[in-house]
Specification:
The strands form four sheets. Strands 7, 8, 9, 10, 15, 16, 17 and 18 form an eight-stranded antiparallel sheet that branches. Helix 8 (185-207) packs parallel to helix 10 and helix 12 (327-343) packs antiparallel against helix 13. The chain folds into three domains: 35-202 and 226-308, no CATH class; 417-520, no CATH class; 526-597. It has helices spanning 4-27, 34-39, 48-64, 87-92, 100-121, 139-160, 170-181, 185-207, 230-251, 257-270, 289-308, 327-343, 352-364, 379-396, 398-403, 470-476, and strands spanning 277-279, 285-287, 417-419, 422-431, 450-458, 463-469, 478-485, 488-501, 506-514, 517-523, 527-533, 536-543, 546-553, 556-561, 568-571, 574-579, 582-587, 590-597. The chain is elongated, with a radius of gyration of 33 Å. It has 601 residues and is α+β, with helices and mostly antiparallel strands. The protein starts with a helix and ends with a strand. It is found in: Membrane. One of its GO terms (molecular function) is serine-type endopeptidase activity.
C-alpha cells in the first residue's frame, strides 16, 4: 500500500501538470480551439474508435489472458502467433500481451497515435469518399464500428504474417503511425516519440513519486533490441503506409515531401526499425546496424516519392517508343496533332479554351491534377509499387516459418511435468526448435542453435518455448511459468538448489512442481573441490533429489549425505561441517572450505 507521503507527492505532481496546462491556455488562445478542430472530423471531438479498440484489447488482457487474476502475470504462452497450425495463437496474438508493462506501453502508444489516425480517417466522410446515406457514410458507424473492425482486421494480418511467436499490439501501433505519418508527419513523429516518452515517464512518476534504485547484479539477458519483434513492427508500419497513401490519393491530398521524409527517417531511428538482428550460437546475437541504417534511409526516400513524387512518366520520353501500344493509344497519337492545330486558331467561343484543354487531357490519357494517379507508369506510382513490394517481402518471409510443422521432441516421463497438453521440462543444451535451421551459422555449419533451461512445449498447440533460461534460473533460484488457455490457468514453479565447489563447477538440481505434482527435472554431474586435505579429495554429487558428500583417498571412495546447517559428519578420515551454508573439511588441526551453498538474488 502506498504511503501518505507518496500519495501527497502524486497529487502535487498532478496539480503542477494541470496548472502548467492552465497557464499555457491563458497565454495562448488560438483562433480555433482544440474542440472545434477535433469536432470538424470526430463526433463530439472524441476518438470513439480508439476508445473502443483500447477497451477491446483491455478485455482480452483481463478475461482471455486471465490478467484479472494476476495483472502482473497474464497467461501468454498459448496466445502467441506460433504457426498456422495454432489457430488460437494466430487469432489472439495481436491483441494479447506478455506482461503488464508490455500492455501499458502499447496502450499508451495507442492513445497517443491512434487518435491522429482516426482523425485522418474521419467520422464525417470526406467529399471525395462519395455521397450517400449508407452505413459507410454514417458518422457513428464509422466511429465505433468501421474503424475498430478495420483495426481488428489489420491485427489478424499482422498475426498471420508475423515472423516467429510474436505477441502484442505494437504491430497495430506501428500501423496507426504509418497511416498517420503520410498525412500529418510532424504531429505523428512527436506523438510517437517525445510525447509517448513524456507520457510514460509521467505515469511512472504518478505511480512512484520517489523511485529507489539499488545497484545490484542482474541475470544474463538478451539485449533489448533482440527482444523486439522488428519484422512485426515493420509489417504493421508498411500496412498503415499503404492504406494512408491510398486514402491520400483518393482525396487528392499531397503532403510536404520534406516533412514526410524527415518524419519517416526520425521515426525509423527513434523506434529502432533499423535494428535488423538474428541469433548466434549460445547467448550471442547479431545486430546488422550498418545495413539496417542504409535500408531505412533508402526506404524513407521511396516512401516520400510514393507520397509526393511527380505524376510525370517514370520512363524518359525517349523510351516511350519501346512501350507496347494499344488501338486506343494509337488513336490518341493520331489526334494529338489536330488538337495542337486547334489551339493555334483564335478563340471565338467563350470557354472554348477550357474545353479544348479538357479534350487534350482526355486524348493524352492524363487525369486531373487534383486526383493524381498511382499508375506504375508514373514516378509516384512506381515508388508506390516499390512500397508494395517491400510490404510483400516483409510479410512473405514469415510464411515458410509459419507453415513448418514442429516435430515434437521426445520426453522422459520421470523428469517432465505434464499439465493438460503442455509438457514442462528442464534441459541443457537442447536443440532450439524456434531458430535452428534458420541461423546464419547454418550457411557454413550443419549445427542447430541450442537452448538451456525450462522448456514448455505442446504438440497439440505447436508450441516450443524456452520459458526460463538456465542462466536466469541460476541467478534467481526460483521462477514461475503460467500455462493455460481460455478459462483456465496453471502455475508451474521451477526451483534450483546447489553447491559451489571451490575451484570447480557448481553441482545442482532443478525441481518442477504444479498443483501438488513435483518432479526432479534435472541433476548435474558431480564435481570435486580443487583442494586436497591429507591427500584426500572432497566431492559432491546430486543423487535422487539429495546431495551426497564423497571423500576419496588412495583409490577408495566413502560417501555420506551433506550435513545440515550447524551439523557435521565424519567421512574418509575428515570431519566435514556445515557452518551457515559453507562446508569446511578438517583433519589434524587443518580446516579448509571446500564448498558453499548456492545463493540467489
Amino acid at each position: 500500500m502506498r504511503s501518505f507521503t507518496g500519495i501527497a507527492l502524486a497529487v502535487l505532481l498532478a496539480v503542477v501538470l494541470l496548472g502548467s496546462v492552465a497557464v499555457l491556455r491563458r497565454l495562448h488562445e488560438p483562433s480555433r480551439g482544440w474542440y472545434e478542430a477535433a469536432s470538424s472530423r470526430l463526433v463530439l471531438g472524441v476518438p470513439w474508435g480508439t476508445l473502443v479498440v483500447v477497451a477491446f484489447v483491455t478485455a482480452v488482457y483481463l478475461f482471455v489472458q486471465d490478467g484479472i487474476t494476476d495483472p502482473t502475470d497474464p497467461v501468454s504462452i498459448p496466445y502467441r502467433a506460433w504457426s498456422y497450425f495454432s489457430p488460437l495463437g494466430m487469432a489472439t496474438a495481436s491483441f494479447s500481451h506478455a506482461s503488464l508493462s508490455h500492455f501499458t506501453g502499447n496502450m499508451a502508444g495507442t492513445l497517443l497515435v491512434a487518435p491522429i489516425a482516426e482523425f485522418v480517417w474521419g467520422h464525417y466522410p470526406d467529399e471525395r469518399d462519395g455521397t450517400g446515406d449508407g452505413l459507410w457514410h454514417t458518422p457513428w458507424v464509422r466511429a465505433v464500428v468501421i474503424f475498430p473492425l478495420v483495426v481488428i482486421g489489420i491485427g489478424f494480418l499482422t498475426s498471420l504474417f508475423a515472423l516467429g511467436p510474436v505477441i502484442g499490439f505494437s504491430g497495430l501501433v506501428y500501423a496507426f503511425a504509418g497511416f498517420a505519418i503520410v498525412r500529418y508527419p510532424i504531429a505523428t513523429l512527436l506523438a510517437t516519440t517525445l510525447l509517448q516518452s513524456a507520457a510514460l515517464t509521467t505515469v511512472r512518476a504518478l505511480q512512484t513519486p520517489v523511485y529507489v534504485y539499488v545497484a545490484e547484479a542482474s541475470p544474463p539477458q538478451a539485449p533489448s533490441w533482440a527482444t523486439i519483434a522488428i519484422q512485426g513492427h515493420a509489417l504493421g508500419f508498411f500496412i498503415g503506409l499503404v492504406l494512408g497513401i491510398v486514402l491520400l490519393e483518393r482525396r487528392g491530398i499531397r503532403p510536404n515531401p520534406l516533412r514526410v521524409w524527415l518524419a519517416v527517417v526520425l521515426f525509423a531511428f527513434a523506434k529502432g526499425l533499423w535494428q535488423i538482428y538474428w541469433f548466434g550460437e549460445g547467448n550471442s546475437f547479431l545486430l546488422f546496424q550498418g545495413p539496417g541504417i542504409a535500408v531505412v534511409t533508402v526506404l524513407a526516400v521511396v516512401i516520400t516519392l510514393a507520397v509526393a513524387a511527380s505524376d510525370e512518366p517514370a520512363l524518359p520520353s525517349s523510351l516511350d517508343r519501346f512501350r507496347a501500344s494499344s488501338p486506343a493509344e494509337d488513336l490518341r497519337i493520331d489526334l494529338r496533332r489536330p488538337i495542337e492545330l486547334a489551339r493555334e486558331v483564335p478563340e471565338t467561343v467563350e470557354d472554348s479554351s477550357a474545353r479544348l484543354e479538357r479534350i487534350a487531357d482526355l486524348v493524352g490519357g492524363e487525369r486531373s491534377a487534383d486526383v493524381p494517379s498511382l499508375s506504375f507508369r508514373t514516378q509516384r506510382g512506381t515508388a508506390f509499387v516499390a512500397v508494395l513490394l517491400v510490404l510483400a517481402v516483409v510479410a512473405g518471409i514469415a510464411v515458410p516459418t509459419n507453415l513448418l510443422v514442429m516435430a515434437e521432441p521426445s520426453h522422459d516421463e520421470e523428469t517432465t511435468l505434464t499439465v493438460d497438453d503442455y509438457t514442462i521440462e528442464y534441459t541443457k543444451e537442447a536443440e532450439n526448435l524456434l531458430v535452428s535451421g534458420f541461423g546464419l551459422d547454418e550457411l557454413t555449419e550443419d549445427e542447430g542453435l541450442e537452448a538451456s533451461g525450462v522448456i514448455v512445449s505442446s504438440g497439440e498447440r505447436t508450441i516450443w518455448l524456452e520459458a526460463v533460461s538456465a542462466d536466469h534460473l541460476e541467478f534467481v533460484g526460483e521462477e514461475t511459468v503460467s500455462v493455460g488457455g481460455p478459462g483456465w490457468r496453471e502455475t508451474v514453479t521451477a526451483e534450483r538448489s546447489g553447491w559451489e565447489l571451490v575451484g570447480n563447477d557448481t553441482v545442482y538440481q532443478v525441481w518442477l512442481s504444479a498443483d501438488g505434482d513435483e518432479r526432479l527435472a534435472y541433476e548435474s554431474d558431480s564435481a570435486s573441490a580443487n583442494v586436497r586435505i591429507q591427500d584426500r579429495t572432497v566431492a559432491i554429487a546430486p543423487q535422487d533429489g539429495e546431495f551426497v558428500l564423497g571423500v576419496e583417498f588412495d583409490g577408495d571412495l566413502e560417501t555420506a549425505p551433506v550435513p545440515e546447517d550447524d551439523e557435521f559428519v565424519e567421512i574418509g578420515g575428515l570431519t566435514v561441517e556445515n557452518d551457515d551454508g559453507t562446508l569446511y573439511a578438517a583433519s589434524n588441526g587443518t580446516e579448509v572450505a571446500v564448498a558453499s551453498e548456492e545463493t540467489y538474488n
